[in-house]
Every structure is written in structure tokens, then in C-alpha cells.
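@channel anyone free to eyeball this complex?
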Amino acid sequence: MRAYKSLFKIRFINTLQYRTAAFAGILTQFAFGLLYILLFRAFYAQGNVPENFTIDQMTSYIWLQQIFFVLFYMVDKNPLMINQIEQGNICYEMVRPMNLYGNWFCTLYAERISKTALRFVPVLILAIILPGGFGLGAPASALNFLLFLVNLIIGSLLIISINIIAYCLMFHTMSSIGIFSIIATLGALFNGSMIPLPLTPTWFQALVNFLPFRYVNDLTFQTYVSSIPLIDSLLQTGIQVAWLLFFVLVGNLWLKRNLKKVEVQGG
Amino acid sequence: MIEVKNLTKEFKISKKQKGFLGSVKGLFKREHTIKRALDNVSFTINDGDIVGYLGPNGAGKSTTIKIMCGILTPTSGECTINNMIPWKDRVTFVKDIGVVFGQRSQLWWDVPVIDSFYLLKDIYKIPEDVFKSQLEILTKQLDLADIINVPLRQLSLGQKMKCELAGSLLHRPKILFLDEPTIGLDATSKLKVREFIKQINKELGITVILTTHDMNDIEALTNKIIIIGKGQLLFNGSFDEIKHKYKNYRTIEIEFEKEYDEIKLDGFEFIKKEGRIQTFKTAKKDFKIADFVVELSKKYKVIDVQVESISLEEIISKMFEELGV
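replying in thread with the prediction:
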């Protein structure tokens, strides 16, 4: 466990160095948040108000999306890991007495948490102080907030476990380009990053319930704004945990199988 | 003790066809060729040996090392190291080995070297006191004090190699694998690295297996060499054995008083002529320089004769030639 802790620490501290990128990120997130809210407000103004998703809920949903953008974005292209697979540096990972899955999970998680830590507070503050119904509202209830925190943590682990599946696929394609683009697009569509899921047609909402993507972030945000009943949120948290376990198990087995068959040619 | 028996490794390589049409065809049907990187290789290495593993580019050196490190699974054959099978007991096995691949880096690129070392300490579960003393020894022997706090990416190639070596030895491995450890290093760094390898072998009894293209590495370090070519074992024995076998190979450079045409000498092979200087090669067993000069002076006016033994580099390339690789 100590090794994972150290690895987490070293990656966390290292990512904190990139302050300019974080600052640019903060501005982007703030601008995008405002734009999205203005856009969807226009639909609401036309009288198309959906049931169970008021304008205030929508506004909070969008802000949460922007605040936790780096925690939940679909693909995390880690140059170190891509290099390990494409260039064969995985050699060195294999001569260490350490589980590679744990090693990767730790690295990816540390970098995400680090990036989030740098950005989420400024965006959060900006979102709270915005006046005139444009800002982030309070959680629906204390219970909603508690469950939101649980969903947030499980969701952040779930996205890492999905990312590792992408890296496992990379062993077969030897290129990072295609896989990551596909996952990024499908993910953004099915997890509500493009259009908040409560604003999508009923059949679509039914469909995404069967896919893993919305359990990464949409569930978390809907729990906060209480656009689904608390009891449903609780039940879906169970599904969220099941997806996490599923992807961790599949990732572990797949990586193990890949390592058995891995070929590293040349000096 | 390392025992390798009938080790064979095959790679599947997909063939790319030429041109645009070929590429389109390749989308639907891939052709594969099987490349045999290792073919029935067997050898034994004893504890405390320094073994040089030689062969031309693409002979299968790195493949063997990677199998012995547990990275690759062989197609067939056996390999037992300290009673373990590397690729089966990988996680347990790698605790006892250190590995340096000259062209790759095991330390973290963007953090100070010392941070990488501390991370390795936790990964290998090295006790605090062992780590401290080992770090102190390595810092001293490799002269690392000034560079240990600098991020790896800012170090020169020679400094990097020294750090890599230190990193591979922190956990006091019993076996050290070095894949081209002196590649790209300048003369001074090479000497330092060699000296260090010798020292750890002697003082700590670490078995060292190294591949290199630098014959001086071999000459300075190893007591045993294994040569492979085209995936097959060609030679396995002591360095002296090879030297002895080729000790009669000599190059002779003769400077005459005036320019002669190509001279024909019995048992000597003419190599080249540059003005008054002519060069020959011989493998004569009973070559005696004094007799040779006397004999030569009877016919020609000789100013100077220089005799050189064949260099190791030439020996190895001669062996490759004879063995047909």
C-alpha cells in the first residue's frame, strides 16, 4: 500500500506544477458554464420547460459539470502510459514487484485529483457568487448532499477504471488516437456532457441507464439537484458501484492477459 | 544460478504491402510472417559471474534478456533463475534482479532523481536503514551527490546512466541485467561505469549479465562470453578461449626504403599498399618476427616492421563471418 501512496504523492505533486494550464482551464470552464446556461435558458424561455428539471436545477447541473470537469472528463491521455505501450517502456514497469493495474490506477487518479484540486475552488467560488439566478444553488437537502459526495467519489473511481480499459485496448491497436476519440465522443453523448440528460427524450434517458457513462457524472449531479427522487439516486448508486467493480475486474483480467502476450521488440 | 534450456522465441510480424492498393488490401487481409528471434538456446551462468552477451544487431540479445527478466514469455523452452521461472513468478522474481536498459529509462522523467529513488524504496519495500546505507554507498561510488536533486530530464546522458545504475541497485539485487549500459557515453563516463560494475561484482558478489557492442566493455569486464547470431547460440566459453583461438592472427605493416610492387609472401595475405608501406595479414602459427625480418631483408630494403595482434573487435567480426551470421 505504501508504494501506491508514494506513487500517488509523487504524481500529485508533479501535476501541481502546471499552474498556467490550470489557470487557462479555470477561465475556459467559467466561460463554457455561462454559455451553456445562456443557451439552455433560451429554450426554457420558449416555454419548453421539462418536468422535474427547473431552470435552477439546470443551472446548478451545468455549474457542477464545469466545476468537476477535469475530474470526470472522458479521456485522460497520459503521455507516460501511452509511451509505455507504444514505445515499449512497459518493460520497466514489468520488472517491478508491483501490480501494474494498481500502478496505473494510482497514476491516473493522482493526476486527476491534482488537476481538480488546482481548478475546482476558483470555479466553485465564481459559480456561487454569480447573481440573478445564474449561480450554483444549494443542494436539495443534507441527505442529497451526502449522497452526492458518495457519488462523486465512486464516479471519479469509475472514470479511471473505464480509462484503463481504453489503455488495455491500446495494446491491440498500438495507437492512442482512434480509441480515445471514440470513447470521448460516445462518453460525452451518453453522460450528459453535451446535453444534460434530463433534457433529452425519455427513450434516450432509458437507454443511457443501461450504459456505464452516466454513472460517472450525471448521477452525481442529479443527486445534488434532486431531479430524481432520493430513493432512485440511492438505488442507482448501487448500479454505480456494480459498474465500478465490473470495470476493475475486467481491466485487471485484461491487463494480466495482455502482459502475458506482450511482445517488446528491439533494443 | 541461471539455467537456460532450449529457449525458443517466435514473433509474429504482420506484413505491410506496398503502395495504396496494398494498404487497402491490408485492411481486409493481413499476412503474417513468423520470425524466430531465438532458436534452441541453452546455457548456464554461475553466481558471481560477469557474462558478456554478444551478437550482431537483431541477433536476439535483448529478447533473451527480456525473457530472463520475466518480461517476455518464450514460445518454448525453459529458464530457471534462483529456482524460479521468471515469467511465471514475475512479481516475486523481480525483487531479486536489477535491470538497466541503456535506451530506456526506469526513473521518472520529470521529478528529481532522489524522489524516484524514494519511490523505488517503497515499491521494493526496502527497509529504511538498508536504503540509507545503500544510497550512501552508491552516491559515493557513482559521484551522484551533485546531481541527485536535479530532475532527470535535465541531466546529461552519462549522468542519467549513473542514476539508472544506482536506481537498479538500491534494493540489493542478486542479479543485474545491463542492456547496452555504455551506449552513447563518452570515454570518461564509460570508464567510470565499467569500474563501478566491476566493483559491485567483486564486493557484493552480484551476478552481472551485459549485452554490448563495445568490445572494450567486454575486454574490461567479463570473464565469460556467450555469442549468439540469428537466434542461435554460437559460442559459450571464457574470453581467453577466444583469444587463444585467434592469437595467431596478426597484421604486419612493412615500410620499405623505396616503392615496390605488390609483394608476394608465402603464408601472408596482402591487404593494401600505400606508397612505400605495405600491409599483410597472417595466421601462421610459427611466426617469429626476427626470422621474418631477416628473411625479408635478403630481398628488399626494409626500414620498419610493425606487428599487431588482431583486436577483439576483429576477432568477433571474424567469428561472425566464420559462423555465417
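from a first look: Residues 2-261 of chain A form one domain.
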